[in-house]
Amino acid sequence: MTTATTGLDDERVGAVLAEIARTAEDNDPDIMKRAYATAADWPQPPTAQQAAELCAQAALPVHPQVGTFLYQLVRSLRPALVVEFGTSFGASTIYAAAALRDNGAGRIIGSELHPGKADRARGHLSRAGLDGYAEIKTGDAREQLADLPGPVDLVLLDGWKELYLPVLKILEPSLRAGSLIVSDNLPMLPAEFTDHVRAPGNGYLSQQLPLGDGIEFSLRLQGKGSEDL
């Protein structure tokens, strides 16, 4: 009996992830440094729309170590609902959606402010054969993720770093005890975010993991629809 190829060995999944990686390699390597340097010179922090425009040409895929970790988490946790802030071209969405497909159930809802990037991510998911497990909302995540269809089991934060905390606070009412939060690009995370997930009394157990350029990995200890851990 022949076993269907699934997971990260799926040729369609691998081909699309490789294409996104090549696009990232072809990007100007200083594009994000210039984006943050530009915003640093502004009298006020950039709005969500300004941040999206600064990053409009950057593919920004997750490091394969982080993507593989996300796949492992989804396979193990078997979440009904995964939520992502900062879809970009959809690499991380593909890792999660591949795991959901292999689990046989579940959905990931991503959010991307830039319409062109959101459309590109949808195309990548379709070509990978995973669009049935994913929905990409276009617009400000603080609005798009404010009304979700059920408790959130797993969160990936991988957008504009200054919005990590506002987005997390919007999601907190939907988190259950045992929900997991993966926050990418640890060296770039604002102190107010890491302080929030590390401070005793805020309902998290959090630690740094050396995957990619570093992630903050947080467990929600109290939440919606279940007893506190």
UniProtKB/TrEMBL annotation:
Q: Which UniProt keywords apply?
A: Methyltransferase, S-adenosyl-L-methionine, Transferase
- Cross-referenced Pfam families: Methyltransf_24
What are the protein's GO molecular function terms? O-methyltransferase activity
Question: What name has this protein been given in UniProt?
Answer: Methyltransferase
- Gene3D superfamilies attached to this UniProt entry: Vaccinia Virus protein VP39
**Which PROSITE patterns does this UniProt record tie to the protein?**
SAM_OMT_I
Q: Which SUPFAM superfamilies match?
A: S-adenosyl-L-methionine-dependent methyltransferases
Q: Which domain of life is it from?
A: Bacteria
Q: Which organism is it from?
A: Streptomyces inhibens
Q: In Gene Ontology terms, what is a biological process of this protein?
A: methylation
